[in-house]
Amino acid sequence: MKILVTYGSKYGSTRGIAERVAERLRAGGHDVTTTDVRQAGDLSDYGGVVLGSGIYAGGLHRDMTKLLTQQHDVLAGKKAAAFAVCLAAAQNTPEQKAEAEKYAQLFAALVNCTHAASFAGAHDPQAMWFLARWILKAMKAEPGDFRDWPVIEAWADEIASAWA
Description:
By secondary structure, this protein is of the alpha/beta class. It has 6 helices and 8 strands.
């Protein structure tokens, strides 16, 4: 199947996850294109679309929201999967896990996805602009790469198999 993996990422963490998902889909026999959401273009040529978005101030990347609005009708006729990337997914408290899951479910509801997930991202204060760095410091967010690659790969493999 011809699949587009598109992502909205400010600092690169979501892009890295999208690229790994695309690799796994290719390994599963699919023809996969990966692109930043701003270059996604018309989605009608694809049989499936995987959408990934970082979560910023409690919402999706603004360009992902724009794509969902502009191509809502096209997406309605496609196989779709979505993943949200947020630091809440890196926490082990039930409240934080529930918050991360909420983002995935919200995203999935907007697109009517067959697969949805929340993944922890990476937090590199040096790559962020001042206000974002200040907010994360106030939240006591620890720097680091919290992406769980085996979990991400298993999710992508599940899609590759289901969409075969």
